[in-house]
Design goal:
The protein is of the alpha+beta class. The chain is 31% helix and 29% strand. It has 2 domains: 133 residues, Aminopeptidase; 143 residues, Aminopeptidase (3-Layer(aba) Sandwich). A hairpin with a 3-residue loop joins strand 9 and strand 10. Helix 3 crosses helix 4, helix 5 packs across helix 6 and helix 7 packs across helix 8.
Length: 295
């Protein structure tokens, strides 16, 4: 049984599963088990829980994304979303080798791995041995949450983005992406990223302040469940930076997000001291540590 397998055994290092443990793609019958597993940490697992609330199924998506489930005999003990990105779900680092091997066998190219730091870094180590070369590793990203009112006054110039403003919002989203990851989101084709931004606007997950035909500040709710939202894509127009505006905007982000769920979460690079200070001023507190690996 998994509980009796030592993490330093060869099976954890060479990509083979420990005795009694199997890895396979989940299907519709596994939906309840996956939901139960992810619900043990609704903040860390908001990505997969949002997917389950949206689709109602653990089965592969029409686009070919799957959820790899790790079973100890008949019990689901861990999982990993395998689509454009790899996103572990309650997966212990000791099982990273078996999951990485299964992800590698699929032949997919992954843009990133993100989630709880110990497991993300273990997956990266295993995938590196299989020839997946990372562009950048961000090993320490505080995972932060706030529940209840923000500690500063909100700037109510922020509101929900409207599709009529799509052509103004899209360039700001692309600028944020390029600042964050170091390359254009259009490298794989403009259409895919444009559809992603348009979808966020239509879902009411785009938060923006427009002035004189340009974006002053924007953020998105990248994952939304009935319990938790996860804020992503926070960006201030360079012309407005250094004016002390960020905290008010983030307070408004929190209050708008709380229209959908009581807990607002985000994760931030440890070296971004200015952003961390702003989030703490608003009332966010660290509840865990994420990591991101960019390929």
């Amino acid at each position: 049984m998994l509980s009796r397998v030592a993490p330093w055994l060869a099976s954890h290092r060479d990509g083979t599963a420990p005795d009694g443990v199997t890895v396979r793609a989940l299907g519709v019958p596994d939906t309840a088990a996956l939901h139960g597993l992810a619900s043990t940490d609704p903040v860390a697992n908001v990505f997969i829980l949002a997917h389950l609330e949206s689709t109602g199924s653990a089965a592969p998506t029409p686009g070919g994304a799957t959820v790899l489930g790790v079973f100890d005999d008949d019990s689901l003990v861990g999982a990993c979303w395998a689509g454009a990105n790899l996103v572990p779900v309650q997966l212990t680092p000791g099982l990273a080798g078996a999951v990485a091997a299964a992800a590698h066998r699929s032949g997919r190219r992954y843009a990133s791995i993100f989630g709880p730091a110990p497991t993300v870094l273990a997956l990266h180590s295993q995938l590196e041995q299989l020839g997946h070369v990372a562009h950048e590793v961000r090993p320490d990203q505080p995972l932060m949450t706030i529940a209840g009112p923000p500690a500063v006054e909100p700037n109510w110039q922020l509101g929900f983005g409207q599709y009529a403003d799509f052509d103004t919002i899209l360039p700001a989203c692309a600028a944020m992406f390029e600042e964050e990851v170091g390359y254009s989101p259009y490298l794989g084709g403009r259409d895919f990223y444009s559809r992603r931004v348009a979808g966020l606007i239509r879902q009411g997950h785009s938060l923006v302040h427009l002035s004189d035909g340009e974006v002053v500040f924007k953020a998105e709710l990248g994952a939304v469940t009935s319990e938790v939202t996860q804020v992503q894509g926070v960006w201030m127009n360079p012309s407005y930076r250094g004016l002390g505006l960020s905290a008010g905007y983030m307070a408004a982000v929190v209050l708008l997000a709380q229209k959908m769920a009581p807990i607002t979460s985000l994760y931030v690079n440890d070296y971004n001291s200015r952003a961390r200070a702003t989030y703490e001023r608003v009332g966010f507190r660290q509840v865990g540590t994420f990591a991101t690996v960019l390929f």
